[in-house]
């Protein structure tokens, strides 16, 4: 029997962190910065040109994606995740999560350019 989507015809995407599928509306779309840097930016409106990757807006999925080096694979070598980290931690603070409960994600050594 085919998989039945709970939210109608909303497209599903796979999180590059936890690798679980979810509705597009629940995940952040990430794209490589078009300025020639290796930065990854959050596509808030989901309209930017280029290949996109999807991530749950949680510290756990972000940490998994960094650990698995998923950004570089999904976005053709882009590894700068500072903008993504800021967006996720800003969302966590907006939800009244204490700052002490938000882990910081450190880049792996040698990944900074």
Produce the secondary structure layout.
Elements: E1 12-14, E2 21-23, E3 28-32, E4 40-42, E5 52-55, H1 59-67, H2 70-74, H3 82-94
Antiparallel strand pairs: 1-2, 3-4, 3-5
Question: What brief labels describe this structure?
Answer:
113 residues, alpha+beta, three-stranded antiparallel β-sheet, two-stranded antiparallel sheet
Could you tell me how far the N terminus lies from the C terminus, measured between alpha carbons in angstroms? 48 Å
Q: What is the string of helix and strand elements?
A: EEEEEHHH
Gross geometry: globular
Estimated radius of gyration: 15 Å
Count of DSSP helices? 3
Largest sheet, in brief, is: 3 strands, antiparallel
Determine the strand fraction and express it as a percent band. Answer: 15-25%
Indicate the mean pLDDT.
Answer: 81
Low-confidence stretches: 96-103
Number of strand elements:
5
- Name the helicity range: 10-25%
Structural class determined from secondary elements: alpha+beta
Strand arrangement in the largest pleated sheet:
4-3-5
What would you say this structure looks like, in words?
- The chain has 3 helices and 5 strands; from the N terminus they run βββββααα.
- Strands 4-3-5 form a 3-stranded antiparallel sheet, with helices on one face. Strands 1-2 form a two-stranded antiparallel sheet.
- β1 and β2 form a beta hairpin.
- It starts with 11 loop residues before the first strand and ends in a 19-residue tail after the last helix.
